[in-house]
Amino acid sequence: MNRSHVPPPASATAEQTPRGFSRRSVLTALAGISLTVAGCAPGGNDKSSASSSSGKSSVTLNFWHYFTDRAELLQQFADQYHDQTGVTVKLQLIPGDTLGQKFQAAAQAGRLPDVAAGWTGVGDGLAPYAKQGTILNLQAAMNDGWSQRFYPAHLQAGSFQPGNSFGVPPGPYLVPLDANNMQILYNTKHFAKAGISAPPATFADFLDASAKLATAGVVPFTSGFASWPLDSFAQMYQYDVIGADAMDATFSGKRKYTDPAWLDFLGLFQQLRESKALAQGILAADMPAAESLFANGQAGMIFDGSWAVGVFKQKNPGFTDYDVMLPPSVGGATGKLAIPGGVGAQLLVVGTSPHKDEAVKFVRWLTDPDQQVKYATTSANLPANREVAGKISTTPVLQKFAAEMDKVFPSLPHSMPAAVNTSLHAGLQNILAGKSAPAAVAAALQHAQSTGQAK
Amino acid sequence: MLEATAPGNRPARPARSQRRYDQDWKQGLLFVVPALAFFLLFTVYPFVRTISLSFSDWDGLSNHANFVGLDNYSAALHDSLWWRSLLNGGLFVAAALLLMTPLGLLLAVGVERVRRGRAAYRTAFYVPTILSGIVVAVIWKWLYQPYGGPINQAFDQLGLHSVARAWLGDGGTALWAVSLASIWQGVGYPFLLYLAGLQSIPDEVYEAAAVDGASERRIFFSITLPLLRPVITTVNILTILGAMQMFNLVLAMTNGGPGYSTEVPVLHIYREAFGLFHFGYASALAVIFGVLLLAVSIAQLRLARRGADR
Description:
Number of helices of chain B: 14
Helix content of chain A: 40-55%
Oligomer: heterodimer
Radius of gyration of chain B: 26 Å
Strand content of chain A: 5-15%
Low-confidence stretches of chain A: 1-21, 33-53
CATH topology of the largest domain in chain A: D-Maltodextrin-Binding Protein, domain 2
CATH class of the largest domain in chain A: Alpha Beta
Shape of chain B: flat
Helix content of chain B: over 70%
CATH topology of chain B: MetI-like fold
Number of strands of chain B: 0
Shape of chain A: globular
CATH architecture of chain B: Orthogonal Bundle
Structural class of chain A: alpha+beta
Number of domains of chain B: 1
Order of helices and strands of chain B: HHHHHHHHHHHHHH
């Protein structure tokens, strides 16, 4: 049958346009295209800067954070801030290990929040944003007396120094919200059972205590060595064995990772491998898994931070038989052990936000004494505001953590390049797994430093 | 009556019919435009952009990037970690091809033969496939736990204390442990495809073979397997592509460790882009990887076609 014999639908005939398209088809197609374009168009965040009739601001600030244990507390702060100022703070909880990726993707798409938790320290990871102005340089705000609230070392930890190797304008980019440090917590009952009368003071004592714990049927030492705690643990012994000056010289390329001091540092991990210290599966354990092992009374020691006190309370409220000790020094180049920590949670303000001034005011409000007291007492963290640090009643273990804040290692002018850091993490895991020797790892680190490629 | 036309010339269309044809064509085009816009924006543009970025040193944030020619491709050739990740990907492929696809076929043959509860079996074997990779990772991390994990406890109860170990924390077992979790999750897919393939084989063929006195074994190897060849080809290609592109299980279970013992290509690309800010280099690795997967798929198709022609 010839197609031309098929009668067209009446409606189509009636609405036929002079060019041959029905009006309906044109409208449908245009609606489709509009939806497509609208769906792809960059939409701004839900932000309004209009003032409400009450005279209070009606600005909405978007705040991305990863503080799972403090989400409720932050919501209380957001509600309180809204009542006081009219500014709405919309909190979005994002897993800590993906916040960096989410921030990067949002920066590319132009959909950043106004305030975010810092997911990394000053270094490779933050420099591109600070250089572009995506993260706000808070120097001007800090000059207005804000900086007086913080320990200078804590503020320095979130600042790019003048003449930094990244070419970032110097100044503070991260605001400390709380303080912490990492030490070794130990189970007092297991120590007594294993006949360990005093916490080990030297690395040799530590290995000896581990052997005693193993003999007593206790898992000697655990931590989340699948991820960043291994890097923090290693950094501690870099300061101890290599020393800050030599570390900085190596990071800036003036010394080599194959120098004897670096080999000595890597050799410590071979000693750990050969001892009975490490928990089975420590290389696949993340921090929550390690903390569960310790809080359930299965492990004798854990390398963890001051926040662990709150975590243990949450995981096993009845678990109180533990204390904290400084990690044992090997008495290397410095003869003095420095511990990781200083600043705990940090916040940053997005420099490209249309509400950056309001965002700065909100972050500053969070560091006010009243909020800091509530924050520290509710979350079992050490406050960043030094005015209130001595006014908070905490547990004896937290007090011991607080007492060692002066031992936190200082930030260096140069930081370890990201490719070297990746290689070091894998290299240490390989040493602990018996797959690599310190010399091979040192060579891989040097290769990463020279080429920018992890090996 | 048919009109004679010169070779290569289309028969003349009546003027009214031609107008109608033009209208339909344009109308059709209008309806296709939204889908085409999506396709160009979300498929063609990222594809072209990835290729163009692979010749640059873009860090993922800067407004400008420098053209670096073939430097990224040259660097990939000398990147020992990239080669290591490809090797690990190959091992995942081998495990999947040697264990998962035969297991899928075995399950399909078994379910095809049962008379009752076929739907229940189908559901049970397919459920892991629809689970999120992260959920599967959590389940298997718990199973593999060195202290109190069910697998190690089972070995202990059987008196096999020396077999119990930190499956994910040991560089020698981590890759195979992740692979096993992946097989558990993925076996439902080949199972379903094989089951559909088995059900499409006509009963008459089996009946004829039975009349001729063929044994069960002979029927399986001479009738079932040859007639399943197109399904086997499809399953093999999908298995290779899936195993080579493994990412979320590895990320959640081992993050590529211990050391680099479970580093896989997609994780390496991800780390270069999002961890080290080497977007240009990561784009080059993505292009190389894409070409590699395409080549493997074509090779597999050709092998299958050659086998069918014999």
